[in-house]
Specification:
The complex is a heterodimer of chains A (338) and B (282). Chain A is built from twelve helices and 14 strands. Chain A is α/β, with parallel strands linked by helices and 338 residues long. Chain A has a six-stranded mixed beta sheet, sandwiched between helices. A four-stranded antiparallel beta sheet of chain A has the order 2-1-4-5. In chain A, β7, α6 and β8 form a beta-alpha-beta unit. The relative contact order of chain A is 0.14. In chain B, α3 (72-88) packs antiparallel against α6, α4 (90-101) crosses α6 (117-143) and α7 (151-180) packs across α8. The longest helix of chain B has 30 residues, at 151-180. The A-B interface holds A 15, 49, 52-55, 74-75, 77-78, 80-82, 84-90, 92-93, 97, 101-102, 104-110, 112, 133, 149, 153, 335, 338 and B 3-9, 19, 22-23, 26-27, 30, 33-34, 37-38, 100-104, 106-113, 117, 181, 281-282.
Chain lengths: 338, 282
Amino acid sequence: MADPIIRTEGLRKRFGDVEALKGVDLLVRPGSVFGLLGPNGAGKTTTVRILATLLAPDGGRAEVAGLDVVRDADALRFRIGLAGQYAAVDENLTGLENLELVGRLYHLGRREARRRGAEVLERFGLAEAADRPAKTYSGGMRRRLDLAASLVGRPEVLFLDEPTTGLDPRSRIDVWAFVRELQADGTTILLTTQYLDEADQLADRIAVIDLGTVIAEGTSDELKARVGGAVLELHVQDRADTAAAAEALAGLGRGDPTIDPETGSIRIPVAEDGATALTDSIRRLDERSIALADVALHRPTLDDVFLALTGRAAEDGTEPEPPTRRRRRRRESAGAAP
Amino acid sequence: MIAPTLARPPVNLGERLRLAVADAAVVTWRNLVAIWRVPTVFVFELVQPIMFVLLFRFVYENAFANIPGGNYVLFLMPGIFVQNAIFGSTTTAIGIAEDLKKGLIDRFRALPMARSAVLAGRTVADLAKNLLLVTVMIGIGYLVGFRFQQGPLAALGVVVLVLAVSFTFSWISATVGLAIKQVEGVQAAIFTMVFPVVFVSAAFVPVSGMASFLQVVARNNPVTYWCNLARYLSIGDVAMLDPVTGLPTATLEGLLVRSALWIVGLLAVFIPLSIRLYRRLA
């Protein structure tokens, strides 16, 4: 890759007895959208906080726009923008005043700060609400104002930490559109997300991060190719039959079926041409009189990728880990996102 | 002052100072806007000190027979002014904890602004708020029978002293806010700290009436120096006469020097300490 704009090498960070990052290596191409994908407590926020100069790493190094995030932090802050997990806006200030505040703290001068504030508000569809206190804004408007604030300084690199968490579907699509627009303007964007479809939609490249390490990296297609083939997904009518159905389907695909007794679903990775497996599965279940509610054959999603990489789903609670370890990770996620 | 425009970090001390002042001014403006637009917060902050004045003025008046100067209202009000300066500074810690909770401190820390500006902007805005507070309290004092008796200059001296104390405690308060971070915890911690500091002093009663082990603490408590200086400037050296022996217990010069040394000393510790905590927030 030619001159990455973000480069981390062996980034490590520890909070008390919890190792939040265990050596994270990332390379991000200028002008790209890079997705950091992983469950809560994986280390996504910690990584972003280090890159945005909020947190010093314990080990390894990180460079953004050619500047060291620790040594050159003062210079770097002129060139980055950050929108965190919460809409960090001052509720007592109007939308425009919020942006003016940020602009003046970028040392743009009062007039220029005001001008850019108005310009960014316009772009985010908030021009009409410019003179209203932010406390009167809806959740989606606040998030847009927060994003707007991160752009006042015209950053080369923008960090978005879970930019759509807690947003309604409509606002979520708006945020996606802004991200694409910004990329078209040449901004490099690193975003974290727990939503696989979000990374799939937006990111040129994705790093899957889990328990403080990058476990896979590539384009969405490359990651899907790692699972290979297709996925056969079946839903039994009676959830009590889930285990029996899985047993009946053993050896059918290219890997072990994953079952979810809660929903009565069974997922099996199958070969590219899954038609044989599809008819086979129906026949096998029919022989045992297990009724199906639904059956589908589809290309693997990032859900399947995550499952294939970690042995568990990205967003559910079934983890092949001892309970003490799990509690620790929870504590980390609480500590890493104050 | 013209706000500087700069697209790179300051390179020398002059530039650094200019930016620190400009950034602090911007943050001060932001905090003052909140006080201005949500005046109910300030009105509620006034309730408690007014309650203190009324309680002490009318409940305890006759309980304290041996008051220097013989008049409890005159003795009490300068202590109340200092108490208010200290209690009024607790908003600094709470404001910082709230900014932390809302993610605003994260936003500020990722901006190319001076590392001191968020704290300076908060303490200066609270200083302005506390000026308003002390003005109201002087008015309340006049309603319940207090009068400055040493002329306008000495009265101004009381206001300056009270503001200096409030500014000092705002920095202590900022340190507590950054150390504890959670709003509820900060609230509990700051009041647990401030109550004994104020009550084990000459703020409301003469030290000579306290249990002997507390007298040692109270006599060396800076709050005692500040209250006695405020008293001296309000009602004259009669405030300093021992009620039993009738002899002066302190001189104006002594009080001035000790009061100033404590203020400068505490600022010298807590300004750098709080900025350090701000830099190292995780």
